[in-house]
Amino acid sequence: MTSLPALSALSGSSAVSAPSAFSPPITKRFSVSASPDSRPALDLEAFPPSFAWGTATSAYQIEGAVAEDGRAPSIWDTFTRTPGAIDNGDNGDTACDHYHRWPEDLALMKGLGTDAYRLSIAWPRVVPGGDGPVNAAGLDFYDRLVDALLDADIAPSVTLYHWDLPQALQDRVRDSRGGWTERATAEHLAAYASVVAERLGDRVTQWATLNEPLCSGWIGHLEGRMAPGYTDLTAAVRASYHLLLGHGLVTQAIRAAAPGARVGLVTNHSTVAPASTRPEDIAAAARMDGHTNRWWLDPVYGRGFPADMRELYGVELPEQAGDMETIAAPLDWHGLNYYFPVTVADDPAGPVPHAREVRLPDVPRTGMDWQIDAGGLEAFLLRLTDDYGVRELYVTENGSAFPDTVAPDGAVHDPERTRYLEQHLAACARALRKGAPLAGYYAWSLLDNFEWAYGFDKRFGLVHVDYATQKRTVKTSGRRYADIIRAHRQATAG
């Protein structure tokens, strides 16, 4: 999931671009209410019959087994050992123990009625040193998992990089500060992608190059709240550039290794609004939009890096001939991770991009203190469609964290998460009616899991995990999702 800071409608091949408890069964529609806290209208017929209903996870957040079968440390294994970096001193050493319990988790997916599953491959499990020898045991694990998913009629959507860079590459300092600040890391990512695609490409069709490069680039290198924990603008800009270069190189590598592959990129975004009509706040919103949205989309869609943001950062890009064409290689699909909108005011003395979040009064928020606004999901799906010409879209992550309580009978009722799910699926339906080429939705997340700097306290799962016993319990939200999936298939059958 995203770990954006709570930071639009604001919108350029060179490197520069222009400036309740369990709900009753549903029918094809259920009642409309204007209240954001009540059930929205869910237009099942807006979703095409082929619509993919899935769940999403990532390797470090669920697998555990960090020192088994040849896996080497990642930057997250290192970062979680940094005092004060993770709430409660938690780490992903065991997490959900999915490495050993994946058959149980696959059965949960099947029970929910999902037909798609978004997973990530752990780079340090497959190529422990970042480059060099391949770990056969690591590849074997994903080979077994993919086969089992297909046997269960669940299509795997494989993400090749979800933040778990091999620590060996972070330690390899040449031109800058190691890891993503080095161009070689992008090249190593492509080599690793070739290994995985050659092994799984005969069965996996849908591939994502990266997950949320914003978090790796900005939060990991500028804000220091994610691995590797830097607070260095130059390092952050270099990392952001090499992440997108890596995306382009991986796109080439996958297509060479698996000619039938469909390749996409997963990015996280927020709609951004100014706190007032003051010109300073409007300019701050434009900067935040550039920082959060345009910096990560414009280069991928052939517009180059935004000129206004390059001027703001004041850091020279490590561009070489042909890079921008590589980054802008045409994609087969785009994945949107959406959680919350942002309202900002001008903050000249604050850190880049000099925009401060303004908390709106009397608006619902999740347990992450993120504002709830499903309209932002609809708006950004349409922005990707209309402004960037995306021809096939997926919501690759969307979900909410709230405190869960296990009832005396063992049930987990989560009406707030259930409501959030319904509201955002209704937003997807509205976007579809307005022309968004939305082909699937992956709920974040299948399981409660290790939530990065928040440790295990923040729970996003449709399935509750008791970390002491590893017992899994489907929550009300999970049952509701299953109900919606079943009703959609009934509504669109024949």
TrEMBL record:
Identify the Pfam families for this entry: Glyco_hydro_1
PROSITE patterns reported for this sequence: GLYCOSYL_HYDROL_F1_2 (PS00653)
A GO biological process of this protein is: cellulose catabolic process
Q: Where is the active site?
A: 212 (proton donor), 397 (nucleophile)
- E.C. no: 3.2.1.21
Q: Give the top-level enzyme category.
A: hydrolase
The UniProt annotation places substrate binding at 61, 162, 211, 339, 444, 451-452
The record's listing under Gene3D superfamilies reads: Glycosidases
Give one GO molecular function term: beta-glucosidase activity
- GO-annotated cellular components: cytosol
Keyword annotations from UniProtKB, A to Z: Carbohydrate metabolism, Cellulose degradation, Glycosidase, Hydrolase, Polysaccharide degradation
Which reactions does this protein catalyse? Hydrolysis of terminal, non-reducing beta-D-glucosyl residues with release of beta-D-glucose
Q: Does the keyword Isomerase apply?
A: no
Asked if the keyword Hydrolase belongs to this entry, the reply reads yes
The cross-references to InterPro entries, in alphabetical order and at most eight, read: GH, GH_1_N_CS, Glyco_hydro_1, Glyco_hydro_1_beta-glucosidase
Q: Where are the transmembrane segments?
A: none
Query: Could you tell me the superkingdom of the organism this chain comes from?
Result: Bacteria
Q: Which NCBIfam families match?
A: BGL
Q: Which family does the similarity line name?
A: Belongs to the glycosyl hydrolase 1 family.
Name this protein carries in UniProt:
Beta-glucosidase
